[in-house]
């Protein structure tokens, strides 16, 4: 059973378009992290959200944690080819470094 | 500062063999965790070590084991390999392993079981 479902699974867009990736669960998480993974590399942390309703911005990326701490979204404005990669959300339920990863969203931004 | 180093980068084994993967964490990091990544199951937690003690374990069979040395370096071992063990094995380190602490991942070891 996958606790964290991401949608969409795949996304192919043109440079300059906006997009939103969703991460949903029926479980409550203490915090939620977003990672980006490029081919042949390990995931790299983008952001951690901790408080329900929290919004964090990282340049053109906006992350939101749901009020009930069960879901999160990642919005990218004016996507660039450098944004291409696998986006993963990961939740923790308080246990040390035992992250539960989402199913992943593979994003391709065409120039 | 050097990142998390995993060796080897690629490995090909046959069914029934055993394999040992190595992970050197970032200097000063005492927590090392291991994850298995496959196209079908995504990233799944294997186990986490801190100060040479396993603190957390995921839902994997006993064929998967690990250990951590006094210098925080960690190894994981898979015995009696099965075809389904083919995956990218990722190691991640952090200072203390506290929940929501920043994790630094290595580039992984790609294991192929034939």
Any overview of this molecule?
The complex is a heterodimer of chains A (111) and B (114). With 111 residues, chain A is mainly β. Chain A has no helices and eleven strands. Chain A has strands at 5-7, 10-14, 19-24, 31-37, 44-49, 55-58, 61-65, 71-76, 85-92, 100-101, 105-110. In chain A, strands 2, 4, 5, 9, 10 and 11 form a six-stranded mixed beta sheet that branches. In chain A, a hairpin with a 7-residue loop joins strand 9 and strand 10 (100-101). Chain A is globular, with a radius of gyration of 13 Å. The N and C termini of chain A lie far apart (37 Å). The mean pLDDT of chain A is 93. In chain B, strands 2, 4, 5, 6, 9, 10 and 11 form a seven-stranded mixed beta sheet that branches. In chain B, strands 1-3-8-7 form a four-stranded antiparallel beta sheet, with no helix packed on it. Chain B has no helices and eleven strands. The model of chain B has no long low-confidence stretch (mean pLDDT 95). In chain B, a hairpin with a 2-residue loop joins strand 5 and strand 6 (53-57). With 114 residues, chain B is an all-beta fold. Helices cover 0% and strands 53% of the residues of chain B. Chains A and B meet through strand 5, strand 9 and strand 10 of A and strand 4, strand 5, strand 9 and strand 10 of B.
Short characterization:
Helices cover 0% and strands 52% of the residues of chain A. Chain A is an all-beta fold and 111 residues long.
Key terms:
heterodimer, A: 111 residues, mainly beta, six-stranded mixed sheet, five-stranded antiparallel sheet, 0% helix, 52% strand, B: 114 residues, seven-stranded mixed sheet, four-stranded antiparallel sheet, 53% strand
Number of strands of chain B: 11
pLDDT below 50 for ≥5 consecutive residues: which ranges of chain A? none
* Gyration radius from CA atoms of chain B, angstroms: 13 Å
Q: What portion of the residues of chain A fall into strands of 2 or more residues?
A: over 45%
The amount of beta strand of chain B, in percent, is over 45%
* Greatest interface: A-B, 26 and 28 residues
Radius of gyration of chain A: 13 Å
The number of distinct helices of chain A, counting runs of at least 4 residues, comes to: 0
| Biggest pleated sheet of chain A | 6 strands, mixed
The total of beta strands of chain A comes to 11
User: What's the rounded overall pLDDT mean of chain A?
Assistant: 93
Oligomerization category of the chains in this entry: heterodimer
Major β-sheet profile of chain B: 7 strands, mixed
């Amino acid at each position: 059973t996958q606790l964290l479902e991401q949608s969409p699974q795949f996304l192919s867009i043109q440079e300059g378009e906006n997009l939103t990736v969703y991460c949903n669960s029926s479980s409550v998480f203490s915090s939620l992290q977003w990672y980006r993974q490029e081919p042949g590399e390990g995931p790299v942390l983008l952001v951690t959200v901790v408080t329900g309703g929290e919004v964090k911005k990282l340049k053109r990326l906006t992350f939101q944690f749901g009020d009930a701490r069960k879901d999160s979204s990642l919005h990218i404005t004016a996507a660039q080819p450098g944004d291409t990669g696998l986006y993963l959300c990961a939740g923790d339920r308080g246990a040390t470094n035992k992250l539960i990863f989402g199913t992943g969203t593979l994003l391709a931004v065409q120039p | 500062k050097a990142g998390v180093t995993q060796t080897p980068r690629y490995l090909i084994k046959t069914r029934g063999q055993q394999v040992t993967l190595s992970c050197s964490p970032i200097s000063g990091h005492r927590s090392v965790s291991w994850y298995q990544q496959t196209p079908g199951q995504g990233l799944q937690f294997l186990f986490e070590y801190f100060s040479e003690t396993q603190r957390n374990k995921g839902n994997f069979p006993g064929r998967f084991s690990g250990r951590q040395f006094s210098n925080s370096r960690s190894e994981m071992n898979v015995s009696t390999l099965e075809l389904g063990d083919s995956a990218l094995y990722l190691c991640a380190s952090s200072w203390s392993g506290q929940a929501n602490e920043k994790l630094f991942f290595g580039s992984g070891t790609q294991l192929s079981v034939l």
